[in-house]
Specification:
Helix content: 55-70%
Structural class: mainly alpha
CATH topology: Hypothetical protein af1432
Radius of gyration: 16 Å
Distance between the termini: 54 Å
Shape: globular
Number of helices: 10
Mean pLDDT: 95
Low-confidence stretches: none
CATH superfamily: Hypothetical protein af1432
Order of helices and strands: HHHHHHHHHH
CATH architecture: Orthogonal Bundle
Number of strands: 0
Bound molecules: zinc ion
C-alpha cells in the first residue's frame, strides 16, 4: 500500500480511538490534534519520509491512552509500525514518577525512528503547555520543561531540525513562564 493510503488509514484509526478524549489544556483541544501535529512536525520540520515512522507517529498514543491492543496495530499496520509504537509507549502499570524517570533512562537506547517520534512528541507537548496551558502552577510547567529537556538530551543526534525546534520552544517556554512568575 502507498503512503497516502496508509496515512489516511492511520488518521482514521487514531481518530476513532481518541474520539472521546481532549488535551489537558484549558482550551479543550480534541486529542487527535496532537498525533496529527506530531506527524506534521516529523514531515515538515524534521523532513522525515520513513513510512513506518510517520504511521507510528499518528498511532503513538493509542496503546498508552486508549484500549487499543498491540495485536490490532500489528494486524492493521504491520510489525514494524507496532515495534515503533511499543518503543514510545510507557508502562501504565508503573507510577507516573517512575514512568518519567524511565523515559530519561531509556531515551538514549531507542531506535532512530522512535527517537524522532519522541522528539516531535515533546515539541507538540511543549507547544501546548505554552499556548494552551493546563491549570498548573508555574512551577509545574517549569518542571515539565526541565524533564522534557532531560529526555531530549538522550535523543540528540536523531534529527537536527527537530532538536533545534525543541530548543526554540524551551527558550519560549522559559521566557513565558518566567514572566508569569514575576
Ligand atoms: Zn503524545
Amino acid at each position: 500500500m502507498n503512503l497516502t493510503e496508509d496515512i489516511i488509514r492511520a488518521i482514521s484509526f487514531a481518530s476513532i480511538k481518541h474520539k472521546s478524549q481532549s488535551r489537558k489544556g484549558k482550551k479543550h483541544i480534541p486529542y487527535i490534534n496532537h498525533p496529527i501535529e506530531v506527524v506534521r512536525l516529523l514531515w515538515e520540520e524534521g523532513k522525515v519520509r520513513d513510512k513506518s515512522v510517520l504511521i507510528a507517529a499518528i498511532l503513538h498514543d493509542t496503546i498508552e491512552d486508549t484500549h487499543t491492543t498491540p495485536e490490532e496495530i500489528k494486524e492493521t499496520f504491520g510489525q514494524e509500525v507496532l515495534d515503533l509504537v511499543l518503543e514510545v509507549t510507557d508502562d501504565k502499570s508503573l507510577p507516573k514518577k517512575e514512568r518519567k524517570r524511565l523515559q530519561i533512562l531509556h531515551a538514549p537506547n531507542a531506535s532512530k525512528g522512535a527517537k524522532q517520534i519522541k522528539l516531535a512528541d515533546k515539541c507538540s507537548n511543549l507547544y501546548d503547555i505554552i499556548h494552551s496551558p493546563p491549570d498548573w502552577p508555574v512551577e509545574r510547567k517549569m518542571e515539565y520543561i526541565w524533564w522534557a529537556v532531560s529526555v531530549v538530551d538522550g535523543l540528540r543526534g536523531a534529527n537536527q531540525p527537530l532538536e533545534d525546534h525543541f530548543d526554540q520552544l524551551v527558550e519560549l517556554g522559559n521566557q513565558t513562564f518566567v514572566r508569569e512568575n514575576i
